Amino acid sequence: MGTWNSRGLRGSTLEEMVNRTNDNLREKGLALIQKIPTPITPVKIDKENRHITLAYFEKQSTVDYIGAVQGIPVCFDAKECVADTFPLQNIHEHQVKFMADFEKQGGISFLLIYYSAKDLLYYMRFSEILTFWNRALEGGRKSFRFEELDPNFFMNIRWGATIPYLDAINKDLEIREKLDNKG
Fold it and tell me: I need a labelling partner for 60 at 20 to 30 A (CA). Which of 95, 100, 102, 116 fits?
């Protein structure tokens, strides 16, 4: 059994909070969001305990979660960060491509980032992801700093460890609407 800060448990706190939030949203009829399992091929199986002891990833996965909120398709990935600097290597090129394709189909893509040392959650809009991603592709920083983030998209964890990401989606939609009306 690992310790509380072992690499094997990294991200599990955020995943539990997202799953609990998604269950609450489904029960209230507000959203239907599903966790996407990572496809694996078992190599070794402990037949006595019926556990997979060795496996490899079949293919690159897309994002952690996909579903619909009030008829709007959404997809997002959940990331945990302990420092004030988030390395872009934690976001994979195939994920950015999937999110871009999802947006082209009228969906909303985003990241939920949990800054565990600060106990703060951040909703990163896809446009913001692209800004940092493109900066890195053009030879700039291969990370983004906490202070570069939009203060309007930080969220506090609510009672029962739920994440108010529907509020952030609403803000995201308002910004998109304003930009659409300008263009």
Answer: 116
